Amino acid sequence: MRAYIYTRIFFCSFLLCILQACSSIFGLPSDPEKPTMGEVTSSTEELKTLPLPKEKIVIGVYKFRDQTGQYKPSENGNNWSTAVPQGTTTILIKALEDSRWFIPIERENIANLLNERQIIRSTRQEYIKDADKNSQSLPPLLYAGILLEGGVISYDSNILTGGLGARYFGIGASTQYRQDRITIYLRAVSTLNGEILKTVYTSKNILSTSVNGSFFRYIDTERLMEAEVGFTQNEPIQLAVTEAIEKAVKSLVIEGIQDKIWGKAIDSTTSYQALINEYKREKEDNNGRVIGNRYPGNYRQKVAVFANVEAQKVRDDYVNPKMNIGGKIGMKYFLTPNFNVEVNGNYFTLENKDIVKRNYYGPEVNLEYLLFPKYRFSPYIYGGAGAMYSKYKPQYKGQFGGGLEYMIDNNFSLRASAQYDLGFKDNWEGLINGKRKDQALRFALGINFYLGNK
């Protein structure tokens, strides 16, 4: 008994050592970390590389707040924590400093500043009575020629979600992702006449990913082995807000240069054209962007020809059906970007090992629905009817299927699909037995060629 207990203790200790080693391998935190400087985003670097102005612009920010009123989503009851950080004014002021185009002045807590200046005046009047009165006066506060207004106006959760997983004999792995989105508006207002000089808006996707692996299997009738590993990574919302604000400040600077609203700050000896051209190219690219940072294009033409290689297996009244290789060639015509009519000719082999083998050829007509016609990658489904001809009596059937298509370029695409054929009668192989009609399953790989150029 003692030997058994000692063996179990040794095994548990050994398992803990392995888990600790795996923790280091996968980069899992195991020790406290020291405080560090804040992360520098790619937008921060872009701000700091802007050409310097001839004269900095004094600018005021009274408030730049969360206007969404949204709370963090919670699976267990209510959560009264806000989804967006509440210190966005501070983040904006830091971005203005990093751009080196502005002199931000304190306006968010101006009451504190005025109170402190009043305390300084009172102290000087009381304790420095014999000093010169001119030395007691404080310098005037800076006033802003431009005010910045706006805020975080939208936080959209779960705009894109998805995942992938597989499990075989107790061994499995899966991955999941989720995208949220934050949107920011920023406007410059003239304090001279209240005119809104410029308004810009930016958005940033927030990505969360999860990867998991597991092992679950009975070693024998009384022993079960189970293991799990996984990690989740959530992009910090604060960094996403920072990047969006920094992008908005950069856009404001460039559009202000382009529209000549910065006055004396623009240096006539500096060429801003390269910066403006780069910004224009980015705006042109952005015209084709949709939610999820996807850039759909009009890839598919009205007419396409295709060819498939198929693996085919019949499900009929005989035993031992055998898989064979066949093929299909055809043409598609798009009625709309999503729907097309397909006509094809195909070659099909029906075989039950050592019993029957028949070769069929014939036409099919299908109506196909393409889910994302303007994206490179799109799933599709289809259905229709067809005929099978051989030296025996012709057979008729219906079929339906689906698959995935990936555009290699504007004319070529690769396809993978599965099709299920359902006979109208039970005599494909010449035998009628039972109530089930003859059927067949096909798996295909093929290529499409779209006629024409975009």
TrEMBL record:
Entry keyword Membrane: yes
Signal sequence annotation: 1-27
Top-rank lineage group of the source organism: Bacteria
Keywords linked to the UniProt accession: Cell membrane, Lipoprotein, Membrane, Palmitate, Signal
PROSITE patterns (alphabetical): PROKAR_LIPOPROTEIN
InterPro entries to which the protein is assigned, alphabetical: Curli_assmbl/transp-comp_CsgG (IPR005534), OMP/PagP_B-barrel (IPR011250)
GO cellular-component term (any): outer membrane-bounded periplasmic space
Protein name in UniProt: Curli production assembly/transport component CsgG
